[in-house]
Every structure is written in structure tokens, then in C-alpha cells.
Amino acid sequence: MKSANLGYPRIGGNREWKKALEAYWSGQLEEADLHGKLKEIRLNNLRIQQESGLDVIPVGDFTYYDHILDTATMFGLVPERFIYQGGEVDLTTYYAMARGNRDAAASTMTKWFNTNYHYIVPELGSAQPQLTVNRPLAAYREAKAELGIEGRPVLVGLYTFLKLSKGATDAELSGWIDRLLPLYAQVLQELEREGVQWVQIDEPILSTTLADEELERVQRIYETLREAAPGVKLLLQTYFQSVDHYQAVVALPVAGVGLDFVHDGGRNLQAIAEHGFPADKVLGAGVIDGRGIWRADLESKLAQLETLGRFVAADRILVQPSCSLLHVPVSAAGEQKLAPELQAALAFAGEKLAELTLLVKAAEGGASSVASELAAAKRSREALAASPVRARKDVHERIARLAEQPSARVASVEQRRSIQAERWQLPILPTTTIGSFPQTTEVRSARQKWRKGEWSEEQYEAFIKDQIRTWIGIQTELGLDVFVHGEFERNDMVEFFGEKLAGFAFTSGGWVQSYGSRCVKPPVIYGDVAFEGPMTVAETVYAQSLTKTPVKGMLTGPITILNWSFVRDDKPREEVANQIALALREEVEALEAAGIGMIQVDEPALREGLPLKRSEWDAYLEWAVKAFRLATCTVKDETQIHTHMCYSEFNDIIESISALDADVISIETSRSHGELVSSFEAYTYDKGIGLGVFDIHSPRIPPVEEITGMIDRALRVLDPAQFWINPDCGLKTRRQEETILALRNMVSATEQARERYAVTAR
Ligand code: GLN
Ligand code: ZN
Question: Catalytic residue positions?
Fold first, then answer.
């Protein structure tokens, strides 16, 4: 067996990569210096892998921004709105595609499968593709010349690339395959001539649900490539799920196939056991979790490799992570403030490399050859399992008796509607906002001072109150119907709650790339999640004390907290979601007890948690909806539960959204170009709903007529009696002046609409 890696984090141990990019963008770093700096980081990343003793090191996975953008520019696929005359795409154009410039908007970005990494969506357009530079070849040469590494170049597979692009209908894909295949062939031929042995071709699209005719296309691609460059061996790499068409995939004319044995629900192994694995191929065995941050249970991994060994000759097995290590932080070695049992149980990229080589040693030399390392790994997992943070009896008990917990509101939605109408006496088309108001530099620097201890608790609290008072004043003056306190005390909607709930930890250096230079540091859910005391009551109650207008309490929902964290791997995600939900329920009840009668529970990440395979959507949606309801269903009939979501494609999960049973939902709309509205033609939604009437991502002030247009369009399919008026999302990224002007226009447009629709309201 050999150890192999599939990709390494770009960002550097101290986010040097991010800093270099941003320094270059702001004009503080010359282009030549950027190249120098990034080369240093790139070689260092390779050196770390080399020193780990890894047998197969990927090259060419490094990027100046995003690997899909690299692939597009390698083929000269530059959208027409950018100035481009062919040839190698210069850095200015490259970054303009990613970030936009004065004259042209950036390409959109979207989530890389079910991860939190975002790639730049290639635009196929009318340009004739050409090979502008052979990136994998350059990467291979560099690694060899500088470090003596015989690297394995990585290339995004043609079919995955096309499926992730926009601008070609499904019928046009064949034409695009014809256009790009010769270029892929050329890349491989040049690598072949260079003497490259193996190339890793990433085709994660094969882990999604593909139609049969699509497999024929994939077949054609790989037949052509094999004929074009018979001397280079292709490792066809899949990840993030099992492959549906196992037999077809392993029969493709490639020299090896990489499979994910961590996130496949056990199906890849099952398929091998059932159908075998071709004797002439290499198996990339993704046994180490490339997306989670926990040390592996090496003994069970060894057992898994042993099972694989029954179907595949040992010298044809590569022990590798389940996917590129791009999705985990660089190294856990620098963490200093974590509980020791947590610290010892972490495996970031660096630690995972060690696990890979250790597994190979154990598999080759027998477990006894690395007995002490295996024992240490086992001890660390056991210590975490035995930690008091995982032994909350109260939590376990409640989970064990989950069936006894109420999971539905007492009154039906119709009953609640009339009870709530009676209580709140809102006008038709009530106006509100989504929660946050501008997080100005003043707000952020106040938080910094408080965190550093320069400001006392009292000082910071007084500052937050001051902000709340200002914005209650502004909302009063604007004449909104339902207020919010503004979320000034929150840095991030998940971190804020994580810091106040039991069971969470925060690393100091656990950064992962989200998109471009933006990195996030997800909270770590490592223990039992429990409520420890009110988290939002003081600010909300203070805001409510200043006005008679209802102030909505504002919480982040269980699924969003789950999906935006690194989660313990000893329990199903469903159970962790339920733990969070039960903890949040206590906050909901505390708010209600303190006199807050409207409570919003945000679930912007509900949709993005959908499994890759359609066939698994229902199961996920069922437990996600259940967790939301657990958190929100114990309130009185008269208490109004709101929720909010930001992603625009809801058509396909609208029934689940309704099943959340929130009295009111606000949904981002502006980016869906009316598609969302039309989905309500087909589906009768019976609860309160606000489709965002202006985009909060842009500083532009939406004119009244434009908002009127949005309202009218929505009211063609929705009843004015159920419709709410609100922006697309929270306003934390906007400036104060913009926010006030935009909301003023929103209120004016609403007042006009009320006159027009009052008669028709039920
Ligand atoms: N209440 C949050 C806010 O307004 C919601 C943010 C979100 O949907 N991402 O900021
Ligand atoms: Zn939102």
C-alpha cells in the first residue's frame, strides 16, 4: 500500500496566503512580490507533505484564488465583458473575474458540492476555448526542480467542470465536450511527454445522481483521453458521497479510481464487496475523513483496509483522505487554549498526513510495528469520549425521551392566525427587517476593546444599549411595524450562540478557506450542547422597554448552528441538532417569559445542508424540520414564531419550509429573479410570508417604484393578508445612511400598496 494526498490547504499556517492576496489587491504588494510570496507558500505546503513521508503528493492544487477559476482561465474561458485577447490570462483579468472591476461584474460564486467552499462559476459563453497554459505541467516541473518531488498533477475533470459551469444547456454539453476534449488531451499529452506517471482527475460529479446518458458522455471523455495519452495513468477521483453507478465508473478506461469511504454511507464498500474491483486498476481508498477535524479511529480504519484487501491487491491500494484537505484547517499543533482532551483529539491537515502514513505502516508491517502510535490515537479518542463535556446526564436523558417532547404547536395555523391578529393588531402588509443593523467600525472596535479587556463589561454593555436606543429611535421614525434590536452585540450569528452554549469550543487557528481570500473559523461542537443561561434576553428586553411596537427576539436556528460548525463524529448529526434545538427552546421560552411575543429563529443554512443525492433529501429534511419545531413549538398560541432563509431556490423544498410551521417566514428573493414568486402559483402557502423586496448586498438605494414592483409581483400570487414587507436579509453590511434611505423607500412603497390592496384583503 502507499499513502497519497488529494489536495492541501492553500492558506498557510498563519493565513499568509490571504494576507498576500489582500496586500496585492490593496496595492501594497507588487505583482512580482505576490508571485514570490505565493511560490514560497506553495513550496512550503509541498515540503510539509514531503516531510510527512507521504508517497504520493498532489501538485497543481494550489491556486491564486480558486481552482475552478484556474481551470476556466487555463482554457481561456473569460467572459466577454472582460477585456481579453487570448493567450495566458493576466493577473488583473483573473482577479477581475473573481472580484469584478469598475466596468464589469464578477462571475458568480457558488458552493462546492455540499462543502462551505465557494468556487467561481465558469461562464461558457461564445468564446472558443484554447489551452492558454498547462498549469499541471508547470506545477509538476516546479515541484520536481525545487524539491525533487515526483508529484501527481491534479486536474478538475472535464465533466465536473462542465456541469458546474453555466451558459450551456444540457443539450449543448456534448458540443462543449467536443470543444474541450482536445484541450484536455493536449494537457495530458504534454504531461506524458514530460514523463509524468500519474494524473489525478477530480470528478466529484460522479458522486451525485447522474442520468444514464450522462455516463455515456463520461465514457466518451475517458476513452478519448486514454487514446490521446495512453502513457499517463489517470486516477479518476470521486468524493463527498458514494458513486451511484459503481460498475460503470470502475469500468471506465482509467488506471485507477478514487472512492470516498467516509461520507458514502457505507455504499462504496458494499458495492466493492458485491461487484468486486477490477484487478487491473488501482483503488484510491479515501478512509481518512478529509472534511472532519477529528483524529481517526485507526483500528477501525485498519479493519476497513483489511476488508478492502480482500477485493483489491495491497499493492494496488492507495491510502488517502476522503477528499482534498482543503476543507480542514492547516494544523492543530498551534492550538493552546483548548481543553487538553479536545486538543489531543484533533486532526487537521498536518495531523491527517501523519495518519495516512501511519496506516500504511500498520497495514504493511502489521499493527505491532506502530503499536505505540495506534495506542496513543486510541487513548486520545477515548479521553475525549470520557470527557465530562460528553457526559451531560440531563442532555442524554432528554434525548432518550425525545418522543415525549412536544414537537408541534398546540393550535393549528388557522387558529394561531386569528389569535395573533387579535393580539398584535398589525396593519396589512406589516413592515419589518431581518435582524441586524449596520455593524459599523465603531461597533466592531467597541467589541475589540471589550474582548481585549480595555473596556469593562459595563462600558461595553452601555455602548450596546446606546446603539439599540439609537436604532429603536430610527425604526420609530421610519414607522416600521415590527422592530428588531439590531444584533450589535453579535460578531457572527453562530459564534455568538456557540460561546454561550455548553458543548462548543473555539480554536485560535482553525481557519478554512470559504471563498477567495475569505477564511472562516467554524466553532467546534465537541460536547453535549446545553443551555447555560439566557443569551439574548437582556438586549431584547431592553429594546422592548423603549417602545410599544413589538420587538422580535432573534435567534440562530439549530440546523444553521450545526451546518456552520465542525461537529463531533461520535453521534449522528440528527442527534446533535436535537441537542441544539432543546437548548434553543429554553432561550425561546426565556424570551417569551420576559414578555417578548415575536421570536425569529433564522435558518439560512437549512437548504445548503441538503445531501448531494436527491434520494437522501427527505430524510435530512425530516429531521431538520423536526429540530426546528422542537426549538419553537412550546410557545403560547399568541406568540408569533418567525423564521428567515437567504438562499433563493426554495421551489423544491417548499413543503418542508411550510412544515417548519413558523407563523411568518422571510425569504431572500432578489437573486431568484421572480422564480420564487412563481413557485407560489403552484403551491398554496398558508402562513405569513415576506419575500425580500430589496437586495441588501448592494449599497444602492432601491427606488420606491422598484420596491412597488416587487410587492405587486408577489401579490399576484400571494394574499395581501398574509404578506409581510421586509428586505432580503440582515443589514449588518450596509452603512447607516444607506439603510435608513432604503427602509424609508420600503415604508413609502408599503403605504402606497396598502391603499391599493386594502379592499382585497381577507
Ligand atoms: N438575523 C440575521 C441578520 O439579520 C440573519 C442573517 C442571515 O440570514 N444570514 O443578520
Ligand atoms: Zn438572510
Answer: 697
